[in-house]
Amino acid sequence: MTVARTARDFQVAHLTHRPPIALAVVIPTFNERDNVAPLLEALENALEGRVWEAIFVDDASTDGTPERIEALAAWRGHVRLIRRIGRRGLSSAIVEGMLATVAPVVAVIDADMQHDEAALPALHDAIARDGADIAIGTRYAGAGSTGDWAESRVAASRLATRLARVAVRAEVSDPLSGFFAIRRDLLIATAPQLSNVGFKILLDLLASMPAGPRIAEVPYRFRCRHAGTSKLDSAVASEYLLLLADKTIGRVVPPRLILFLLVGGLGLMLHLLLLSALLRAGLAFATGQAIAGIAAITLAYTLDNAFTYRDRRRKGARWWRGLLRFTAACAIGLIANVGLAATLYRLEPVWWLAGIAGAAMGAVWTTAATSLLIRRN
Ligand code: GDD
Ligand code: MN
């Protein structure tokens, strides 16, 4: 896209003496305080001679990362910081950073120095000079490699990569790479179709954009993390599956519905098993239904807690307090559940039928309580 230049544009360019920005490098951060200075220095060396800007996107790090970035930016014109408050998610952070620039080419790089910044000029040139739409840093082609990864991590990454090929039609060796560059106008055209969930923005982009993008690959060797710890955890893994589901069957069944049915099914199984055991032990139906209902509520709480970001997970006393609060929020649902089940059981003494009817009533309430009480991104 070219815009006609007016005499005033030339006048402005002359006054500021600044050539237009050619490349924006987006750097997502969550607790990366000791990495941002060495990274910035490495980027400045690697991109020497280009007109570029760094855009950090921080999700309210608690270790002083944004303050460190501000100190670095204070005497550099080409460093910007976007602070997101009360939000989490690598993919959405990257997209917000990418949409905050006017540079024609946008790249992403991790803050922990695992990606080799020396490959950035090649990624940029592949688009700006050679006409690619996307240029991907790859660990799985040519001289690329995963470096010193543990065997289990290599296996997990290979499995995830194989799964990704179901969603992506394009031939790419490393669709899960977090190190790539893209033409900004293609990003803008694709943004409305993105799922925006989880860690894997490149996969999301490849699966959402019009068919037939021109793709370039630049091999690099994955390095070890410089400082700090990885944010990869069970929440990230489950969000990956959610992204894959959204990109494959998402047009037919919303993945959140699948998740609801999965958790609901597990809860119902636990409920019925426990209820039958309690009835066999001689408890009254209503008492058994109430105990089984509380067990199912505890399971919903436990599962939800296990699949939130590690740093937000409740442990010890906070876990118990959270469970109490959650159970209290579900109390009306539990009363409705037991009331309905006991009435049905009196009319028609089929324990599992009455049990399921009550549990379904309780599940609707538990879901509402979950979405009200538990904060999402
Ligand atoms: N803003 C923001 N919000 N940044 C985040 C968040 C978040 O919720 N979670 C992680 N980050 C930042 C980290 O601070 C780091 O700069 C980068 O995203 C990658 O996070 P790591 O915790 O280092 O993840 P990883 O090393 O397991 O995964 C990376 O490597 C993969 C290659 O296997 C990611 O870059 C993947 O995208 C990449 O594919
Ligand atoms: Mn990392």
From TrEMBL:
The keyword Nucleotidyltransferase does not apply. It is found in: Membrane. Keywords: Glycosyltransferase, Membrane, Transferase, Transmembrane, Transmembrane helix. Residues 260-366 form the GtrA/DPMS transmembrane domain. Signal peptide: none annotated. PANTHER family: DOLICHOL-PHOSPHATE MANNOSYLTRANSFERASE SUBUNIT 1. Belongs to the glycosyltransferase 2 family. This is Glycosyltransferase.
